[in-house]
Fold:
Amino acid sequence: QVQLVESGGGLVQAGGSLRLSCAASGRTFSSYTMGWFRQPPGKEREFVASASWNGRNTYYADSVKGRFTISRDNAKKTVYLQMSSLKPEDTAVYYCAASIAEWGSLYSRRNQYGYWGQGTQVTVSS
Structure:
């Protein structure tokens, strides 16, 4: 079992930066692929980024590639999402998630993740 708590959201102007954190607790963390998803107002939850269990491999949605960076610190049981050059369309509730499978690959589908945080609001003003 993994429990996840996001933090770091807030209000930022377009072009600005934010770093989200997701702290995990529970028996294991380092064996799970970690992902970030977001849910814009009135829309479905969508994939943002994924990091393999050791952090060496990452995968991004096209909409954030080159602007967002996912990283993890297994010793601290924390995954991060560094967001730069933010746009108003990045406004959403951001969720971190841990994969169902351990020691797996990169995942981008919601049903590949079994543990979710409560979300943190990111609002980008124009």
